[in-house]
Amino acid sequence: MHRITEFFVGLLFGLDLLLSGMTDPSKVLGFLDLSGTWVPSLAFVMGGAVAVGFFAFALARKRNSNSNFLGGALNLPKATQIDKRLLTGGLTFGIGWGLSGFCPGPGIVSMAAGELKAAVFMAAMLFGMAIFEIAERAGSRRRMGA
Questions:
Q1: What is the pLDDT of residues 111-130, one digit of tens each?
Q2: Is the pTM of this model over 0.70?
Q3: Spatial separation of the C-alpha atoms in residues 129 and 97, rounded to whole Å
Q4: Any stretches that span the bilayer, and where are they (predicted)?
Q5: pLDDT, mean of residues 9-28
Q6: Which of 105, 89, 6, 134 is nearest to 46 (CA)?
Q7: CA separation for the pair 29, 6 (Å, rounded)
């Protein structure tokens, strides 16, 4: 049952990305171009996502349970500080989004639709994630003295 629910939630998310225009890199880049012909429509998409997330997290924090509505583990973020890692990650994400017009969700949807640019973006993102993992493991070994 969990996998069926996950599939339909993912399908709904993908359809929302298509309908909102988040899978169109030119629309995304137009949204990010504040000094040119700014396309404000994605601000409403982002605002809606932030509102849904805000209320969902508020509801999750109020529940007296460590499981979600489907019975799976509920792992809420514990960090409350804005640190160098968060800023670096956000900056890296923003640069990638600004250069390509894709972020991970729309990249997956566009790649599945056969768009070559999205496939290149996804490959570059996975490569970057692998480099991060290698660097993290090397850093943790150094901290442990191994």
A1: 988 999 999 999 999 999 99
A2: yes
A3: 15
A4: 39-60, 86-112, 118-135
A5: 88
A6: 105
A7: 30
